[in-house]
Amino acid sequence: MPLTPVGARRFEAVLAEGTPAHHAFDTSHPGEELCVVMTGRVSAQVGKEQFVLEPGDALHYDSTIVHRLAALDGHSRYLLIVASPAAAPRRS
Asked: How far apart are CA 80 and CA 3, in angstroms?
């Protein structure tokens, strides 16, 4: 469930249940991500590091590094915040 208005340019907040399709496979993109687990358990792989996150755990990482997230049970729910690099200032 997106929590950020369409067209937001600096970051996107998503309340995810289960494994989001765009994170079920290795992915990378400019910016950073913050994953905060609310319920259940989530497996996170960032580069060669593997993490198992439980309720209350948070993981912040550079999203240019290949990463993947997966729910480990049927009631995993977490907040995923994806921050993109700041836009270049506009010249007048």
From this structure: 10
